[in-house]
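Students often ask why inverse folding is considered easier than folding. One informal answer: many sequences map to the same fold, so there is more than one right answer. In these notes we will look at a single instance of the problem. The structure comes first.
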């Protein structure tokens, strides 16, 4: 079973991150953005300001495969997941800083590359941000590692946030429509992908869930429809896997 952070752990990691410099604020916004969207790290580093619209409620990110490195070169529309206004405020403040302070435009990177300069001791050192995208996602993983380890937590990579969101779908979605929208927001065309890839239930919680189902055999309405749909999807997945 893969490890993934709770929302409380994500908040703890963000809470210890510095905010003094533009690099600090970029890094903080990057972690907040990851839990708000579940967007893969390769796509995050290729996003530009013009791909995101924070004037909508909820804000939306349009991953255009012509300019964003999406999986299977697929167009994906992702709205901010309802995981916390505090996360959204961090990202909004960052985009506002980019536009108002650094004068970035729609084609400039949402998470710009670090500009290197000569430090006080004559060695190369971070000297701000520049209008360039990162060439790969390795700096993002370094930012996550530093944030989690700084909070006294084990390192959890950006992709683990997708598992967090997949598990939240199990307890937060109450109708088939909500579950479908949540799955689609992760870029999945099939609900089964969300449930089988990111939705494995902890064995201890599994017993609680089964107990509730057996205690309420006459579940009806939308919740009953959701339970039936999930059951059918998982049954088909077990059958195809030969279990």
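Output (designed amino acids):
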């Amino acid at each position: 079973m893969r490890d993934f952070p709770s929302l409380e752990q994500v908040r703890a990691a963000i809470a210890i991150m510095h905010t003094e410099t533009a690099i600090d604020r970029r890094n903080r916004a990057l972690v907040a953005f990851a839990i708000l969207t579940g967007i893969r790290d390769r796509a995050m580093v290729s996003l530009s300001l013009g791909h995101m619209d924070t004037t909508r409620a909820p804000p939306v990110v349009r991953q255009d495969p012509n300019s964003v490195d999406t999986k299977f070169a697929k167009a994906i529309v992702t709205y901010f997941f309802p995981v916390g206004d505090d996360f959204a405020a961090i990202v909004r403040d960052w985009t506002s800083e980019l536009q108002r302070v650094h004068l970035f435009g729609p084609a400039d990177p949402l998470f710009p590359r670090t500009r290197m300069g000569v430090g006080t001791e004559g060695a190369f050192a971070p000297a701000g941000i520049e209008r360039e995208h990162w060439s790969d996602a390795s700096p993002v993983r370094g930012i996550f590692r530093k944030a989690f380890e700084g909070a006294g937590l084990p390192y959890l990579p950006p992709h683990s946030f997708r598992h967090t969101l997949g598990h939240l779908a199990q307890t937060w979605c109450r109708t088939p429509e909500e579950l479908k929208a949540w799955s689609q927001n992760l870029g999945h065309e099939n609900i089964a992908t969300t449930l089988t890839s990111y939705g494995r239930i902890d064995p201890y919680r599994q017993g609680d869930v089964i107990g509730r189902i057996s205690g309420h055999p006459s579940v009806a309405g939308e919740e009953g429809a959701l339970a039936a749909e999930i059951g059918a999807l998982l049954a088909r997945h077990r059958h195809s896997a030969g279990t």
